[in-house]
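Troubleshooting log. The previous structure file for this entry was overwritten by mistake, so regenerating from the original sequence record. Sequence copied from the archived sheet and checked twice against the printout by T.R.
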Amino acid sequence: MKKVPRSLVLRTSAPFFCLLFLTALYTFDIGSHVVPSKPWKKTHPVESRIQDQHHLDLALGRLLEGENQTQLEATGFACHSDIKTEVCVSNRPVRIDTSTMMIYAPFSQGMPQANRTMNPYARKDDNVAMELVSPIQILLGNITAPPACRYNHNVPVLVFSLGGFTGNMFHEFNEVIIPLFLTSRHFQSRLRFIITDYSPSFVDKFDKIISHLSSYEVINSTENGNVHCFPGVVVGLHYHDNLAINTTVIPEGYSMLGFKQFLRESYNLKIRDLSQKEKPALLLISRQKSRVFLNEDQMVTMMEALGFRVVIAKPDMMANTEKFAKIVNSCSVMVGAHGAGLTNIVFLPPGAVLVQVVGLALEWASSYYFGTPAIGMGLNYIEYKIEPEESSLISVYGRDHPVVVDPASVKSQGYQVERAVYLIEQSFNIDVVRLNKTLVQALGLVGRSAPLG
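Regenerated output below.
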């Protein structure tokens, strides 16, 4: 066989090695400035440009309404603002310096230059939360010398913060996860996220959700000191209500039932029909520090006697969201005292029942934060209101103390006093005979279609 000259081999292989080198260079140049999350380690999709400017305008414009939409069309920039949150949108190219979180938006030449400072977290009305959120500055108008682009992206970007009250599951879903779904779902994963006040534990905990909303790796502003350029930007997240979505509020068309379906897809949750389960499972949220069930063993014995398979959920079990979501999804009834653990109702299957144990002076909070939202999720909801004798506060203050007989007088002293007494100090010694009757009622509701609130 005729030997191929070495020089010919090198010449014919040169394009291959050149392509290999460019691929490696691209991977180093781009990949080293993003934060990987588990699902994204498998594939690194090349950004596909949103089909045209018209489609980009439609996606961004959906986040505004009325005069704000008109302003976006005319100037390229507009904001929605309400009591809870603020969302600003640009449908024209922007540059973001992630080292300073300065957003340069050089729009129409006729626009006067102006600065706008935002805290992109859905608790604008809470001064304590806002102190924990890093501000972002937006420069508008005719900017004479914007910084040069280091990285160019073909899809828009959504900028939001993980400051505020994250670290508490209720606040994580209420102020980040549901608002993130509301603000980004209609982009069909064709957008990037820039996260300020970055929390590795949060991103790892909710990686299934984040990767289901964006096909691209998260950009961590604290580790990325470069200038990124995008064809459009959204700063801030839309918020409707506590663990709730209003279908008629912008962005319109979303619902909590749709959000729960999104969670089923994200976590591959299987249970959709409780009638197929031979033995109903009851999930008991076991608190360890406050609002503790002091006779939990007696409660479990009674629940098993009713025919339930009882799953006791302690805090360490809830640490892995993906695994715990599947456990919750396998249950027909959830029982728990008012607290962040009840946020897991988002994973309950249709027709399940939430039984919330309502402590002394916690009637309003229990209904507002979990009762009403549960109904909005299509769940059956029952309250078990404790009698004063079931509260540990009697043994501390006595049966006739204002803490027990006149909670309003305690609440009048301010939230911190109310919180210390009724949320921190209070635990429960449940009357298992009374609770038995409530659980019999819950059994009768399992599998039924709950009326939506």
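The mean pLDDT is 87. Archived copy saved in two places this time.
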